[in-house]
Amino acid sequence: MSGTYRTPYECEQIFLSLDSGKRSAAVEHLQSWFSEEDRQRIRKVIAAHGRYGWIYHLYDDEVAKEPSHQGKAVIAASGHLRFATLVRNELRVAGYGERDLGIRNLDEIYTFLVEEALKEPA
Questions:
Q1: Counting runs of H as helices and runs of E as strands, what totals does the chain give?
Q2: SS3 content of the chain, % helix, strand, coil (to 5)
Q3: FRET pair for 55, CA 20 to 30 Å: which of 63, 84, 94, 116?
Q4: How far is the CA of 42 from the CAs of 21, 45, 51, 65, in angstroms?
Q5: Prediction pTM value
């Protein structure tokens, strides 16, 4: 990675510019990959913390259980990084990696793919 930071808005624009068929296929894959327990947990975090930023709160409940961890962003982020790595690697193995989607880095869009996959049915 070149170290170039992209804003959440820029990342969303990259997500929206993906080929719609590839985007839909990646979303469908994630829908089938997440367990029902994971779906409910992640939906709850998204609802509580909003789009894009939810990822930084995915493990708040675990951090809260250990008083010495509270306020330590590094510990909270370690869970976020574990989740991010699992999702990105699953996408790559399933044929939805950077090269497949025509993007520079899955880091920029994976949260949007997860959000799309976990939208409540209308």
A1: 7, 0
A2: 70, 0, 30
A3: 94
A4: 24, 5, 11, 18
A5: 0.84
